[in-house]
Amino acid sequence: MNRPQFTAIAMAALASLYLSAYSPPADTPPLYKNASAPIESRIRDLLKRMTKEEKVGQLSTLLGWEMYEKQGDSVQVSEKFKKAVSEQRIGMLWATLRADPWTQKTLKTGLNPTLAARATNALQKYVIENTRLGIPLLLAEECPHGHMAIGTTVFPTALGQGSTWNPALIQQMATTIAKETRLQGAHAGYGPVLDLAREPRWSRVEETYGEDPVLNGQMGIAMVNGFQGMNLNSGVNIISTLKHFTAYGVPEGGHNGGSVSPGTRELFQVYLPPFRDAVKAGALSVMTAYNSIDGIPCSANPFLLKTVLRDQWKFTGYVVSDLGSISGLRSNHRIASTPADAAEVAIESGLDSDLGGYGFGKALQEAVDKGAVTTAVLDTAVSRILRMKFAMGLFESPYVSPEKAGAGTRTAKHVELARQVARESVILLKNSDKLLPLTKYVKNIAVIGPNADNVYNQLGDYTAPQAEGAVVTVLQGIRNKLGTNAQINYVSGCAIRDTMTNSIAEAVEAAKRAEVAVVVLGGSSARDFKTEYQSTGAAKVTATSVSDMESGEGFDRASLDLMGRQLELLQAVVKTGTPVVLVLIKGRPLNLNWANANVPAIIDAWYPGQEGGNAIADVLFGDYNPAGRLPISVPKSVGQLPVYYNYKNPARHDYVEMDARPLFPFGYGLSYSTFEYGSLQIQVAPTPTNVLVTATFTLKNTSGRDGDEVAQLYVSDNVSSVVSPSKQLKKFARVHLKAGEQKTVTFQLRADDLMLLNPAMHWVAEKGDFTIMVGASSDDIRQKQVFSLPADIQVRM
Question: Is 322 part of the annotated catalytic residue set?
Fold first, then answer.
C-alpha cells in the first residue's frame, strides 16, 4: 500500500470516528422537522429519507369525501383512508369537505364547519402518527365562488363577479373565501377559472369571468391576492390553483373538453395573458385543462408546462392535473398505450400532481421501476409539493380550531359582502320609459317564473346543499323589501326544461291583477340526486336525463334559446298589458331577441349567490343603482358565433338574414343615472426601453341620482406588422359619482399594453399610430384620440 492511499484511508477512518463521537443524540429531530431551518434544506433532507413509494404517494390527490366517517357529532377517519395511507402513502386529498349530489353528501351526511375542522384534524393526526415520516396532508377544495362545503358563504359565480368590473371587491371576496376554507383545515382552493368564454354553448361559461383577456387577468390577480395574501402561514390564506391551463373555453361546437387549434400567436396574445398575469401575481398552483391544443393534450404539453410556465414566467409552484386527465391521455386522447406510459409522459412534461389518484399511483411506480422516469424527475415533482407544505407551516401546525371554524364561517359580515358582490354584478340591459326603479308603494305585484323562488337555481354549479333560509330568492327579496304593504302573488308558471306541466294560465291571471309583473326566467346549474355523473364529476346528458340543468359542467347546448315553456310563459304575461320586468338568472348568454323587442325592462343577474334575492330587490326598487357591465357579448343567434368584441381585422360584414352585431355588446350596461365623457387628453413620454401614455378625461354624472359608471379604455393599433384586434380593452375603472358630480379619470399605458407578437415572434410595441377610445362599452365610445410611438420598443416578458 503506498503512503497516499494509506493516508487517505486513515483520514477517512478518523473522520468516521469523529462523526460517531459527535453524532447528534438519537432523539434529536431530523432537519426536515426543524422549523428554523431553510425550507430548501428541509426539502433536501426529507427527500433523502423517502423511499420511491413514499415519493410517488406524495403526488397522489385522492377523493377526500370518502376518507371520513360521520356518526352524529363524531367524525373519524374511514377504513378506506387507512388503506390509502398504508398502501398508497398518499400526500394529498381533494374535496374532502365537498357536499353535492355527485359526492352523495347531504346536510345530514356531510359536515358543518365545526365538524369539518374535526374531520381534517382527524385525517392529519392519523397520517402524522401512522406513517414513517409523519408528512402532513395537503388538502385542496373547490373555491370558485365560495368554498364548496356546507355552511359556507355562497357568492355570485365568476360571470357575475366579472360583471362587477371591480377587482378590489373581488379580492375582498377571495379573502373571505380563503378564510372560511383555511379555518376548516384546507390549504388549496381551486380557482380562479381564467378560461376565455368565447363559446357560449360551452357548459362551463358561468365559471369564467368572460371573453376578454384583460378583464379576466385583473380578476385573476384579485383572486390570487385574496386567496394567498402576504403569508401562506397566516392560518387564513390558501394556495390559489389557476384553471384550466389553457384555451379550454373555446371548444369546437361547444363540446366540453373538446380540441382547440389556436395559432401560436393567438395562444400567446389572447389565451395565455390571464394566466401569465395571475402567475406574475404569485399564484402557486396551476391545473391543466382536459383539451388538446393543436394535437397536444394540455396534461402532456412540455411547451406549456415547462417552456412557458417555468422558463418564461418563472412559475415556482406545482402543476396539478384535472380529475382523470392523466389517464385520459390513454382513454380519451389516445396518445399513450398503457397507464404507465400516460404517467410517464405527464410527469416528464412537467405535471407534478395527480388529481384523482389513479393517473400516477401504481402507473407512475411502474414507470419509475422500469427506469422510464428518473429519480431526478420524481424528486422535482415531489419537492414542489413539499415546498407548499413547509411554506404553510403544516409540519408545525397541522391542526385547526373547530370552534374558530364554526364561528368564522358565513358570518353576518360575510353575508353582507355576498349581497354587495351580487348588487354590483347586476346588469340593467333595458329600461324603456324608466319603468325601473319600481315604487315601493306598489299595492299588487305578481312574481312569476321558475327562477323566482328556486334556491338552487340561483347558486350555480359547484355549490353545496343549503340549510333552510340560508338563501334569499327573488320572491323572498321582494317580500323583504315590501313587507306587508303589498299583495305579492307568486306563480312559478313553468319549469326550466320540463314541458309536461305548467301553470301559465294561473300566471296570466296573477299578472292581470297586478300593477307590475316581475318574471324571473333563465337557466339552471342545480345538480340533483337523480342525475348520473361521470367519473370527472361532469353530468351525463342523455335522452332520459331528468335534471332541469341546462348549464354547468357537462351541459353543453346546441342553441341558446330559453328552454322548456319559458318563452311561452313570458309572451303570455306580456300579452296581458301589465308592465313586465324580466329578471334573468342563468349561467350563459341566452337568446333575448323577443324579450328585447317586447319587454320594457330587463335585468341580468347571472347566478347571484345566496343574497341574490335581496340584491335584485335592491336594484328593482332603487335602493341600489345598477352598474354591472357585460363581461361577455350576447349574440342574436348561434349562427353568429363566435361573436366576441375584439375580433381581428377586417371588420365583420352583415349576414343575409341579419346583421353581424351582438344583441348586447361586451362592456354594456345601463344605470338609473346618466354620465357624460369629455376633454380626453393624451400625453406620450417615450424612453428607449418603455413608454408612458397618460390618458385623462372628465366623467360627469348628469343626473339627479348618485351612481357608478364603469369607464372603459380601448386601444386600436392603426397599422401593425401582423393582423390586430379591431379594438382591445386595456384599462377600466368603476367610478362612483354623486348626482351632478364631475371627476377627472386618468389611465396609464405602458409598452406591454401596446405590444404584439411581430412576424419574428418578438414582443414589440411598434412605432406608428394608435387610437385610444374611452366610453361606456365596447360599442359606446364617447371620446377618441390618436397618438404615435416614435420608435419600436422591445418588450421583455
Answer: yes
